Automatic annotation (TrEMBL):
InterPro entries noted in UniProt: CLCA_chordata, CLCA_N, CLCR, Ig-like_fold, VWF_A, vWFA_dom_sf
CDD domains linked: vWFA (cd00198)
Compositional bias ranges of the Low complexity kind: 882-891
Any one cellular-component term (Gene Ontology): plasma membrane
PROSITE patterns recorded: VWFA
GO biological process annotation, one example: proteolysis
Record-stated family: Belongs to the CLCR family.
GO molecular function: intracellularly calcium-gated chloride channel activity; metal ion binding; metallopeptidase activity
Signal peptide start and end residues: 1-20
Protein name: Calcium-activated chloride channel regulator 1-like
Membrane-spanning intervals of the chain: 931-952
């Protein structure tokens, strides 16, 4: 029991470390939920009131939805510093916009107000943040479409806190329940009743037809629920309807719905997932109704920061003092935002205040501050004395340490560091830690964990330029993107005598103000040639060279730097090899166009071998995902060679959604214990890089069926046009530090055995071959270790009952003989043809398949998605009309719809359906199943392949010349059930 408790605490710790959230659960009450308002939003007290109302309503709703377990106890709202100060506003302490649980901000491209939660982890893993627009919070007209705001908040909170997924699916709105049954709307529970209508424009509609190629309702068909339902579930489907007060649980979960919840959580209901959470384990039902939440308002002040720098003797080793000075100068001269206050403290066995807080009002103040950076070292390391002096610097000016930031850099061991943990916790300051070299004290990160600071780990291998990256990564977390420094390039390497460091930095349209090119070297100044996109050349003579032996040359470009490719060539004219580095930082070019940014996360920031680490990079512009970028990550262990990995946004392996701007990858190459530093590089090429829509959004209810059978429609949802979205972003480069994580439990390298299975295959598809009765299966090969390398063999199972193919019963299902099936290397699309012996084709038969991969060390991967092939005979009974609608025409008062006569080609028989790949886009979103139509008499199989498949294949797999025509369907489509 005691152990369990301890584990739980650990889990909770991990939970908030990962997401940045510092929400605590105390006797069922969520404390310190942070809602942050973007600084670009003009002052609006109505919005603050709306937030208060929303939280109050949400708390009551959450309490009953979770069967009296959870409620909101305290909520903090961060008011931007741009709003008029008020007495009731308290000072922000360790909260920040960047770490907030809920962000209130406008979308860059105005397109509706869909609330959403940024989720990138698997089932049960917390998300990053919830995003509401100001209009969503203040415009009551949106109630009809989204429901009361408190209910929406609970829907999003379940995503964020408990890692459950949506039970609707805009990309796969219908599914076939099997047998002779009609298609149904993707929903939970299946007890939701409503009408399937096809809008004809204006106020008229007709019944939906069934598309025989998919066995689903035609594209454009809408499921309109009745306003009054008997079912109470579920909140992850349609929280807006009054009757909905519960999550789907085991008793009413719709296992057949083609939604992300089923795909991600292996067909478990949302309530089962919530019950498996650490929150659930550490709480119990509460008998009395909880009090209303307390909402406090905090206002962000100016940024106040103190550099607390180690000057112990060990800083002399490996040129650390010089490297620190180079990196800290970049921070003071280029990174920290104008208007901030900065102080500097150094420490060894005792601490010294080098300068009290000075406000960065102009460039000469930046320069002045660099003169306080340490150059000499003394003996001893007393981290707490450094931190305390930092606090003194804040108190000297402010009378408070709340909300101030310390950047603490040390390379030394200090056994007494825990003596100031409590003091640090009480201070309300944020401590960012930079561990330099492998001797830095192990507890250093505790200071960051306690205060919500960033953590960096820097090796003495200067090649990586990581100390500079750490300082460049210390931008303010205020949400004011237009003021933040953005790093475009960061490279360092040893360059031989007379050799060159060459490269290209792309300055895109969104950046260019305050652009600096900084070159550093180890021994003697190199020759520099920098050519701008217009051909103008800059040499080392144009760079300002620091004459205080910092070995740095710096060039600031006046105004906004030219957009395009800047080519650099740095030549080592020294007689021996030396390390040369280049760093380029810039800021946004316009306050109204948000720059493209990259942020990097890890699955957790401590990792015990053999769990795999997952690394994510989020590439976005003004909350819109940016897709088509090449994203690479370098993981640099304390000791040993860095590992480079490419991250993918392909919806496979560790990546849960394709094209959501989150690029992900498993990392398993652990070679030793200790800190691992992360650096992410984004390259976007002209023509490939583009913005995309958010995919996972709250359900916008299209309309209701009223008590009297009339239909009330909501106005159509505003959407940005594809043109707006896909404006060519041009070429882009970004480099960012992703902080560090700590690994433990790694065995000695020569004793490491393979413990990692191939990853789950999530894009299995199947169809029946039209010519020779073979089933053709296609999927993307996983690796030996998750998504890396090559597995050894596959196991494929088939069944008439999909539930048999799930984990648990997979072993018992009928095996498919996989003789002759070779395993491809990870990421390669492969296929397999299979002819069952005694397979009798019966009308409407569904055959299901699932696959898993096994590696050379007998590690067994998870069971894939379940893929389905439908066999249809031509003499199909006429398609019945959709269930609820009647052909009685309604009159059309006001905003009611009327039924127009259903066109009489409604009962199209399969023989009328042309197997053509014409530009019929009816099924563009229903690529989930491939329906095979069998001409019974001749036992000739006339496969009529889904149109979508054809269309997509033409675009992407032009010369795919095999049995497997369907390999090109959107890999993100859910091929489950
Ligand atoms: C400092 O840097 C120079 C030039 O890269 C190198 O030759 C020297 O060995 C370094 N010093 C130490 C102590 O690492
Ligand atoms: C770590 O400390 C030990 C003993 O003080 C010293 O010999 C070693 O050089 C240090 N290592 C680094 C990387 O500073
Ligand atoms: C960038 O610089 C231009 C002039 O060089 C200025 O007009 C613009 O406001 C600046 N943008 C930002 C975000 O400060
Ligand atoms: Ca993704
Ligand atoms: Ca393996």
């Amino acid at each position: 029991m005691a152990l369990n408790h301890w584990l739980l605490l650990l889990l909770l710790q991990v939970l908030h470390e990962v997401t940045g959230t510092r929400v605590k659960l105390n006797m069922g009450g969520f404390e310190d939920v942070v809602i942050a308002i973007n600084p670009q939003i003009p002052e609006d007290n109505k919005m603050v009131d709306a937030i208060k109302d929303m939280v109050k309503e949400a708390s009551t709703y959450l309490f009953s939805a979770t069967r009296q377990r959870f409620y909101f106890k305290t909520v903090k709202v961060i008011i931007p510093s741009t709003w008029e100060p008020k007495n009731e506003y308290q000072r922000v302490t360790t909260e920040s916009y960047d770490k907030a649980d809920v962000i209130v901000a406008d979308h860059y491209l105005k397109h509706g107000d869909d609330p959403y939660t940024l989720q990138y982890g698997g089932c049960g893993e917390p998300g990053r943040y919830i995003h509401f627009t100001p209009n969503f919070l203040t415009n009551d007209k949106l109630h009809n479409a989204y429901g009361p705001r408190g209910r929406v908040f609970v829907h999003e909170w379940a995503h964020l806190r408990w890692g459950v997924f949506d039970e609707y699916n805009n990309d796969a709105p219908f599914y076939t329940p099997g047998g002779d049954n009609l298609p149904e709307a993707t929903r939970c529970s299946a007890g939701f009743t409503g009408q399937y209508i096809f809008p004809l424009g204006g106020k008229s509609y007709r019944d939906c037809k069934i598309d025989h190629r998919t066995q689903l309702y035609e594209h454009g068909c809408l499921f309109v629920p009745k306003r009054h339902q008997d079912t109470a579930a579920s909140i992850m489907y349609l929280q807006s309807l009054p009757s909905v007060t519960q999550f789907c649980d085991k008793s009413n979960h719709n296992i057949k719905a083609t939604n992300l919840q089923n795909k991600m959580c292996n067909y478990r209901s949302t309530w089962e997932v919530i019950m498996a959470s650490p929150d659930f384990a550490s709480s119990s039902p509460i008998m009395v109704p909880p009090p209303d939440p307390t909402v406090s308002l905090l206002q962000k002040q100016d940024r106040v920061l103190c550099l607390v720098l180690d000057v112990s003797g060990s800083m002399d080793a490996n040129n650390r003092t010089v490297r620190l000075k180079q990196a800290a100068e970049i921070f003071l001269l280029q990174v920290i935002e104008a208007g901030s206050w900065v102080g500097i403290v150094t420490f060894s066995s005792t601490a010294a205040v080098k300068t009290h807080l000075k406000q960065i009002s102009n460039d000469s103040m930046r320069k002045t501050l660099t003169e306080y950076l340490p150059t000499r070292t003394t003996r001893g390391t007393n981290i707490c004395s450094g931190v305390r002096s930092g606090f003194q610097v804040f108190l000297h000016k402010y009378g408070s340490t709340k909300g101030c930031e310390i950047v603490l850099l040390t390379d030394g061991e200090d056994t007494a560091i825990s003596s100031c943990f409590d003091e640090v916790q009480r201070s309300g300051s944020i401590i960012h830690t930079i561990a330099l070299g492998s001797n830095a004290t192990k507890d250093l990160e505790t200071l960051a964990d306690k205060t919500g600071g960033l953590k960096f780990s820097i090796t003495d291998s200067v090649d990586s330029n990581s100390l500079i990256d750490a300082f460049s990564g210390l931008s303010s977390g205020s949400g004011d993107i237009s003021q933040q420094s953005i790093q475009l390039e960061s490279r360092g390497q040893s360059v031989g005598s007379q050799d060159q460091l060459n490269g290209i930095v792309t300055i895109d349209k969104t950046v260019g103000n305050d652009t600096f090119f900084v070159v550093t070297w180890g021994t003697s100044p190199p020759e520099i040639l920098l050519t701008d996109p217009k051909g103008r050349e800059y040499t080392e003579k144009d760079f300002a060279v620091d004459n205080t032996n910092v070995r740095t040359a710096r060039l600031k470009i006046d105004g906004t730097a030219e957009t395009g490719e800047w080519i650099y060539s740095i030549k080592n004219t020294h007689s021996g090899a030396q390390v040369i580095s280049i760093t380029v930082t810039t800021r946004a070019a316009s306050a109204s166009v948000p720059p493209l940014i990259v942020k990097s996360y890890t699955k957790s920031d401590t990792n015990k071998f053999p769990s795999p680490m997952v690394i994510y990079a989020e590439v976005s512009q003004g909350f819109l995902p940016v897709i088509g970028a090449k994203v690479t990550v370098t993981v640099e262990p304390e000791i040993g060679t860095p590992v480079e990995l490419e991250l993918y946004d392909d919806g496979l392996g560790a990546d849960i959604l394709k094209n959501d701007g989150i690029y992900s990858r498993y990392f398993t190459s652990f070679r030793g214990n200790g800190r691992h530093n992360i650096k992410v590089r984004v390259q976007g090429k002209d023509q490939t890089l583009r913005r995309s829509r958010r995919q996972s959004q709250a359900l916008y209810l299209t309309g209701f069926v009223e008590e009297d059978g009339q239909i009330t429609m909501n106005p159509p949802k505003p959407e940005p046009t594809d043109d707006e979205l896909q404006t060519n972003l041009g070429s882009v480069s970004r480099v960012a530090s992703g902080g560090s994580f700590v690994v433990s439990g790694v065995p000695l390298e020569n004793t490491i055995t393979d413990v990692y299975p191939p990853s789950k295959i999530s894009d299995l598809e199947v169809k029946l071959d039209e010519d020779d009765d073979h089933f053709c299966l296609a999927w993307t090969a996983p690796g030996n270790d998750y998504d890396t390398g090559q597995a050894e063999r596959y196991e494929i199972k088939m069944s008439g009952n999909p539930l048999e193919l799930r984990h648990g019963t997979f072993d018992d299902a009928t095996s498919v003989n996989t003789t002759g099936l070779a395993v491809e290397i990870s990421g390669v699309r492969q296929m397999f043809r299979y002819k069952p012996h005694n397979f009798t084709k019966e009308n409407g038969t569904s055959i299901y398949f699932a696959i898993r991969a096994i590696d050379g060390s007998s590690n067994v991967g998870e069971v894939s998605n379940i893929a389905r092939a439908v066999v249809l005979l031509p003499a199909l009974p006429p398609t019945p009309a959709s269930p609820v609608t009647t052909s009685t025409a309604h009159t059309t008062p006001d905003d009611k719809y009327s039924v127009s006569p259903t066109p009489d080609d409604k009962h199209t028989t399969p023989s009328n359906v042309k197997p053509t790949c014409a530009n019929d886009t009816n099924t563009i979103n229903t690529t989930m199943e491939t329906v095979i139509i069998v001409c019974a008499s001749a036992i000739i199989i006339c496969a009529i392949v889904s149109i979508t498949v054809c269309v997509l294949r033409k675009q992407r797999y032009r010369s795919y010349d095999t049995c497997m025509d369907i390999t090109a369907v959107n890999k993100n489509a859910l091929t489950i059930l």
